[in-house]
Specification:
This protein has 261 residues and is an alpha/beta fold. It contains eleven helices and ten strands. It has helices at residues 28-35, 55-62, 75-84, 99-107, 121-128, 149-156, 176-184, 196-206, 208-217, 225-232, 246-259, and strands at residues 16-19, 39-42, 46-49, 69-72, 93-96, 137-143, 160-171, 190-193, 219-222, 239-240. It has a five-stranded parallel beta sheet. It is elongated. The chain starts with 15 loop residues before the first strand and ends with a helix.
Length: 261
């Protein structure tokens, strides 16, 4: 048989990766995954929307110069604050829970005073503890679903914590029949999670049996330890992004899939 008529080699099956975070098709995680040759499945289970009442956040930011700290736990909090306050207030220290949040701050020209080695709320409280004086005024712009760990930890340090809703996290509708078809074909190789809420909502949307079936065959990759813990509490192992951040999440996912048969 001549080479001209030799049958073409079969194309390898694509590695499909679920992105559960709320981002557009050209969002940072999706772009990074595609640049690594992975096929992105946008299973958005949460929508980030403005706060029901923006007035409390706007009131605090109008007097930002009276603050000692602003502490950010997510990129969404960064976006909510910097949209209203483009320049960082002078002499105000800035804390960021993880690398992704710190990256979002630096992208808009905000310096980061404290970035903990362990990217968790408890890790940030520990890192801030030598620097927070009793009575320090700390703004915590948070999600409507924010866990209390950060606010409670800062309060124990003696800070006056102003926890203000900066954005709302709401459930988004999934195309369950389309998801089911891919899961039953074992056509999903990895699922990325960037928050405990994403774990909770994907399980709720799919239902526990289908969620279990998905994670029997797909690797769960998480942005941070808190999200990994949300999976572990449900009995699922996961791989933590290394290095931290959305780019690290994409690269970790790519490394895992290249090692799979």
């Amino acid at each position: 048989m001549s080479l001209a008529h030799a049958p073409a080699s079969p194309r390898p099956a694509p590695h499909r990766v679920v992105v559960s975070r709320d981002e557009p098709a050209e969002g940072p995680l999706s772009v990074e995954l595609r640049s690594l040759g992975l096929e992105v499945l946008r299973w958005t289970v949460l929508r980030i929307v403005p706060p029901a009442d923006p007035a409390p956040l706007e009131r605090v930011l109008a007097e930002a110069g009276r603050l000692d700290w602003i502490v950010f736990a997510s990129r969404h909090a960064v976006e909510a604050v910097t949209a209203r306050l483009p320049s960082p207030p002078q002499r105000v220290c800035i804390g960021a829970v993880g690398a992704s949040t710190a990256e979002a701050l630096r992208e808009v020209g905000w310096p980061v005073t404290v970035l903990p080695a362990t990217p968790t709320a408890a890790g940030l409280v520990e890192a801030m503890s030598p620097m927070v004086t009793r009575g320090a005024r700390v703004l915590l712009p948070a999600s409507s679903r924010a866990l209390p760990t950060l606010a409670e930890g800062l309060t124990r340090l003696g800070a006056e914590v102003l926890a203000v809703e900066a954005y709302r996290t709401e459930a988004a509708a999934l195309d369950i029949p389309a998801c089911r078809a891919l899961i039953e074909r074992k056509a999903v190789q990895a699922v990325t999670f960037t928050s405990p809420s994403a774990v909770e909502e994907l399980e709720r949307a799919l239902g526990r049996p289908l969620f279990e079936q998905l994670l029997e065959h797909a690797s769960a990759v998480t942005l941070g330890p808190t999200t990994a813990r949300a999976l572990a509490e449900r009995g699922y192992p996961s791989i933590l992004a290394e290095p931290p951040g959305l780019a690290g999440l994409a690269r970790t996912t790519s490394r895992i899939l290249k090692l799979r048969p």
